[in-house]
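Hey,

The postdoc asked me to send both predictions to you directly instead of through the lab channel. I've kept everything plain text so nothing gets mangled by the mail client. Protein one:
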Amino acid sequence: MTKAELVEKVATQINLTKKQTEVVVNTVFSSITESLAEGKKVELRGFGSFRIRQRNARIGRNPKSGQNVEVPSKKVPFFKAGKDLRQMVDDKKTQEQKS
């Protein structure tokens, strides 16, 4: 699902225009992004949580030249699905396998 599809689906369910819904969706995404940038975690009960993980520096390899390259340490966003979401996806998968 794309962001435009999400906006359209939400707009039909809450009877707002697509423009108004787009503002709401963008606000939610920017709030999550800003919290993660500040080093905070974002937890959406029943859905999952967004956190920042620290990746250590390491020696990588340039696939084109084969040379070793130093990859610096960095922070990356990480999403962990909540129990309800995991169960819903698993139940859907199980139903599709039975069909």
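Protein two:
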Amino acid sequence: MHKLHFAILLATSFCFSQTLSVESGSFVSVNSNSSVSVDGLELSPSVSHTITGPNSIARSTTPIVVGNNSSIERVYELSNELTDYSGILSFRYLNSELNGIDEAELVLEVLDANDVWNNLAPTIDDVNNILSYDFTELVGFKQVTASASSATLTIKTETLNDIVRVYPNPTTDKIIIVSNSPQHSTLFNTVGQKILESNALELDVTDLPTGVYLLNLQNTKNQISTFKIIKK
């Protein structure tokens, strides 16, 4: 059996029709002046990027639903996380896939290795129906879709046996966690990079840059809640 084993070195685009499958021991290497496109999802890395097997990229028409919020009816799923990517991600869509969402409100959504959805404000080409975002830092993701900026997939709400809350939010220096049970906290930035991790009920964020962060809390029963934190 022939394995997929390409090195894309020229300033070209390389297209796959419906899916991209890379077998174990094989790879697809995309140079910084090239791109790879899989059924409307295009990766144009800023530095040479290698997709190693086993991995595959496929498109689904089933929207992602988190709480009362839903994505559009176009979702790309990778069998394994695409790691250490930087560069432009372009996402094509059809008007018929918008699932009632106003095109002007579209944001990109990427699911990271921690199963946290991160929403990103893209450049919207509503003539050609393309969302694009330039990742200037290394990121990893395993699903890509789009949703409304007013109803994103980012906040995942799960029912916990005890009430968990955090304050102050927005904050300038600290985050206090209120819970009847121990909580393991992990703070991520909006591109899914881990910023800090702790078992303490008070987190010092004084030195963090101004912006939006995601705080994951997990108790001893592996119940998880996620909060959007604004650092001023």
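Summary for protein two, as requested: The radius of gyration is 19 Å.

Thanks,
C.
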